[in-house]
Amino acid sequence: MIDPELRIGVVGATGAVGRVTLQYLVDRGYTNIRTFASWRSAGGWLGQFEVEEATARSLGAGDLDVCFFSIGTQWSKELVPIAAEAGAVCIDKSSTFRLNPDVPLVVPEVNGERALEHTGIIANPNCCTIPLTMVLAPLHDAAGLKSVRVATYQSVSGAGSDAIDELRAEDPDDHLLRMDWEFDGVEYDEEVKLREETRKILELPNLPVSATCVRVPVVVGHAESVWIETEEPLSPAQAGQILSAAPGLRYTQVPAHGHAIGMDDVIVGRVRSDASVENGLALFLVCDNLRKGAALNAIQIAEILVGAALPSYFGQRAS
What we know:
This protein has 9 helices and 13 strands. By secondary structure, it is an alpha/beta fold. Strands 3-4-2-1-5-6-7 form a 7-stranded mixed sheet, sandwiched between helices. Mean pLDDT is 91; it is low at 309-319.
């Protein structure tokens, strides 16, 4: 648990992920929290917290110890370095810094020790990369990974609050769901992120990873069908036992999309043989993308830092 005296900033606090981040912190008993958003939301209130405008001046004043950012790539690129230079440890949810070799990309259950290598910025992975690597890591430790194929079915909350409002406002039968990712003619950038982030987190730079990502008309919860080829034989029963014992995972025979809503754990199941390749396994997982897929993972990263350091750790770079 984070030291309750830490001066915490939640940037993008009025968005879908920001609101969940704030609620987690409040539920843990933290009160020394400031909330930031765009000028449109400044002056409003989130419970007892008045919303401030997120600017270079407000975030660069040197009066924050840890800052959670959920504001998108453009604003993260501008504001995160400013807050970090002022002494805050910045945990950023955007894709801006994830593949920067000097910035740790962290899933606490998989590579939490990498958080300790930061120089002011830590990247929070993609909301599908987090649960995927949590499942892949223990299987790799047991039998080695040879290749991974994954198809994701991602809820609209991954595209932000406006996408949620749009889905709820329309007749589901008439809703024309758009893929909101950039497309280069071959891949969506979401598919590239999933592949490259998985390789970085697992420290397997040459791991073959093939991904297909789609949005589905669901408000919350991402699902993934995963096909794995391992170096050594691993039966479905053995894989199930491994996954049942892995941190942050909940093993069930038949996970469904709705099982993940409001859950901190990643739900995984339907583990079976895949006869199309040697040593093949297939499985299915679901995750609340606003919780473990975003907000909770970021808070767990901060908890690692506090658990490994003296209370004076935060802010020491600014002194």
